[in-house]
Amino acid sequence: MSRESITRLGMAIIAGASIFACSSSVWAEDLTFEEAIGQAKTAYDAEDYDKAVELLLTANRIQPNSRLLLNIARSYARSGDCANAVAYFKAFSRADDAEDSLVKTANKEADELACDAFDDEASGRVMFSSVPTGASVSLDGKELGKTPFETVLLGQGEQKFVFTLEGYETFERTVKLSPQSDATVAASMQEKVEEVPEPVVVQEPVRIPSTGPDYTYHYVAGGIAGVGVGLVVLGLVSDLVLIPGTDEEREAFAPGTSDYQRLTEQRSSQATMALVGYIGGAALIAGGGGWLTYLLLQDQDEESLSVTPVFGSDHAGLSISGAF
């Protein structure tokens, strides 16, 4: 019996077996197992081997059967894809339920392909699934397919697979792949939760009542100016009251007498007192008044305080007006 006859016979045996039908939206076109097998046989007979592979993979997802792996390998071989053909021949040989006689046949057919493109250091079958289905799976930025699906000949070692599906959070899973060993990668996708931005609460600034300016230095400056005024008054008293009184009293004595000399010294002291009062008072009034003016300028707005130069025929100065 020819190899092609064996392949067709195997498909017919599987298609005719009394296996329950399983219909689900998970599988392509919502096919049942029997429908997938029947359409795969039709595609194979029509030499549409790529379609046959797709339908056989679908049937194997519905109801796993090692004989399907053998038929997938032969379909790949017919299509000229020797690397995938050898990969599925070896996958069939690893299956626990594979018949020994068919394993020998599969190994022989794989050897006859003499496929240089096959990498025996690469992985075996890697099967992907997700809930919900339809997630795109990528490896190193390259899309491998949409769940559910399987592929072969991936690199060995730790590989990070990324599942993406619109409306769901990205799912990542790292799996260690071994040469010519099978693996299953499943993902449970979580729906994205739209973040509702928190309302922005605009708080009114806290207004702290103003306690007004600190007038401590104002009092000191005013006190200095006040002392100056007192000294000027003392000078005026000495000049206008005490000195004239001494002069009047001194006129009653002859020059050279002891009383005259005493009153003369007294007048000299009173004159010195008047001079000190005038000079010291003027200095203190100028200093304290200037300091007080400066402090008031710091406390007042420009619009509430004005300083205007004033000139006259017999005087000059500054006119300060405002609310103090």
From TrEMBL:
The record ties this protein, via Gene3D superfamilies, to: Tetratricopeptide repeat domain (1.25.40.10)
Does this entry carry the keyword Lipid metabolism? no
Keyword annotations from UniProtKB, A to Z: Membrane, Transmembrane, Transmembrane helix
- Which positions fall inside the PEGA domain? 125-186
PROSITE patterns the UniProt entry points to: PROKAR_LIPOPROTEIN (PS51257)
| TM regions (residue ranges) | 217-243, 275-297
In terms of superkingdom, the source organism counts as: Bacteria
Pfam families associated with the record: PEGA (PF08308)
Name it: PEGA domain-containing protein
What's the source species' lineage? Bacteria, Deltaproteobacteria, Bradymonadales, Microvenatoraceae, Microvenator
